[in-house]
Amino acid sequence: MTQTHTINNKYPPGVYHIIANEGAERFSFYGMRSILASFLVLHFFNPTMDPALRSVAEAKANETTHFFVSLAYALPFLGGLMADWFFGKYRVIFYISIVYCFGHLCLAMFDNRLDIFKCGLLLIAIGAGGIKSCVSANLGDQFTNENRHLMSKVYGWFYFSINAGSVLSTILIPLVYAYYGPKWAFGIPGILMAIATLIFINGRKIYVSLPPSGINKITLYLFHYTRFLTGGKKKKASIYLMLPKKNLHPKR
Asked: What is the pTM of this model?
């Protein structure tokens, strides 16, 4: 006896909010990043444009920028764990997006205070990194067996929104910085991040949400073999991983 699956050609309603949210968020992140190093040199590390300080100022600016970017790309692991084990993807994206917005506010309002400006960078790194692993997974959660054949097309538009947001901001924000100054250049990405958060919140009633799985007893072992320095023998070790407590049932 063969089983037939119902085919649904309608897109899940929540995907439009998620795609728009991602495009606006990427605009905000890459927009501020496109002027960050230059701004740090001109406004903090070498405001007098002293040629003798140029190399040192550029080195300090690059150090700050690289630390910020590294932190932003290291935190998705933590954000994913928080979503899967404790809070769920929606809550992690929602609350960390608010942190993200406060980070942009610090950059726009305190462009003359290096200490507060760096705090803003820290908040943005937490925001961008914290939601990065959750948004794309949340998009996949919206699909069922009936419409999963549409998933590749939706992810195509999702990644298009990422690239479109990053390209547009990389072109536009340096021009805003040159003609209107740092407050607008950092303020516009902040406005886009606030819009991204509002778009995401607006779809809260139509998202399919998976509950957090929690942390359970150790039931999976990953065996790792290493050789002894003498004798060439292999030693077996166990690395324990956390598994969900129960089966997950999507809910709206």
From this structure: 0.82
